[in-house]
Amino acid sequence: MSKEIKLRVEASEENERKIVAARKKYLPMATRGSVMYFVMDELAKLNCMYQFSLHWFMRIFTESVSDMHKPHTRRPRARFPGRSNEFRNLTSSSAKMHIGFRSYLQNMMNTLTDNTYKLVWYALFTEHQLCFSFMLCSSIMRTSDPERDEFSSIGHLAETEWQIFLHCSMLAGMVSAQDRLDNLGGDTWFEQGPNAQWMTENMWKQCLYINTQLSCFALLCRSINTHPIQWESFRNSEEPYHFMKRPFHLLGMDPRQGSPQISRALDSDQHQSEEHRQLLDSIFPWESLTSFQSLILIKILRPECLIATVREFIAEKLGPDFLPSPSVHLRDAFDETDASTPLIFLLSPGTDPVTQLLRFAKEYHGNTDHLETISLGRGQGPIAEELIHKALAQRGRWVFLQNCHLAAYFMPTLQAIVESFRKPGVHIDPNFRLLLSSKSDHTFPISILHEGVKVAVEPPQGLKNKLLTSFGSSGVGEVTERTYMKENVSVSWRRLLFSLCLFNAIIQERNKYGALGWNIPYEFSSSDLEPQSDSEHPLVSSSNCPSKLSANSDILQTLLNPSHSN
Question: What radius of gyration do the chain's Cα atoms show?
């Protein structure tokens, strides 16, 4: 009996060792999951509406592990003339067939990262998307171990470099002049010489600090004081992040990228002198810096290029799919909801998703009879509650409660209603949907934010993004591919429609210039475009030509046939 017990204990210990060994193989996946969740948790500091629950993230984590070959993807943008009607497959590389356990685990980590990013991206305003991507990229790099983690393909970020990037100005200000002199070992190059007068005092202090704290910058201050041509080329470069990828002496020999003065200096009679060789030895080797160390240097010396450089850094490490995008496809966000998961529109100033939602509801069902809308405010809470209960008793009803931030008194009741959806024994029609809209407000229930799918609603920035939005890149544009490619319209009508969309984008973009743009303020929006596009067809059809337009349509005639304006 004792022998049998001993054998069972040994077998149990062996199984435990195997389980521990197998579990350790999946630790990189667990680490990536913890990084993703805590980065999401930090987003609440940017906006109180950026709330994500652990339960929601665990569902995404489980789906990424169990269904690795079907990641959530953004819907491709609509295609127009000159492009193929076939949508390009946007599934990530993580959906490819894996070979071996290492590839399998790497694909699983990539799928989790892609899925989490794309679902969180729905909820972020454009001004916060780049911050989220950079937080995600830097957190992955900080938690990777270059000696033990074979999956750290994007590199490792030391905590010292991260803290210097965040607080270099403050850390440099805390170091006294005597301490800097002691750290430099009595080197006279700590003084800001004539060649460094283009720098502010704060810039020079930060350069001294990283000169002493990071070995890769050991020649920085010496080089700035002795090589004005090198740093003049750095200051004049349009893309300093890519400019520093090549050594300075190679740039000097290339007249297309370096200054002609450098080539002349290298060809001078003093090139072989001892003094000149010492100067060459003190050229700062910026090509040996890591990508993040280059980011530190640009933040100190070229702060105006920091945002563009961060974009390049993210694209290099994570890929262009992790850069800010102009719009959200409403259908993709809607597909993430169900009868018990509300869709929450996060409003920015001057935006209203009603028109987009009506257009989407008509596209989804063929009409808007199933959609009930109510704008919350004083006295509207009981009406909204009754509307929800009536919709629950019917089939396929959608209820849209607008401006929840104006009805703080109703939020506890709304919270109780949403929480009742998930109670055991409660049956809800699968096609029921609850849609909410609200500005950033601390009174909005956190539990609803945790359970709901959030979509940030804001006007697109720039002419290109405005045109993409008008032409349906977000799935709810005023001009869909079906509208633009109708068979019974002429080329003149399509030309006029595009001109109208461009004109609408221009008058919206002029608002950024204040009184210089429009001396009388007016909030132009996509709502101004829709009725105009609907009224164009009677003016220009396949049977009408520009010469038959009335005298009151000179502007239309000019758009359709610019040669007539000469």
Answer: 30
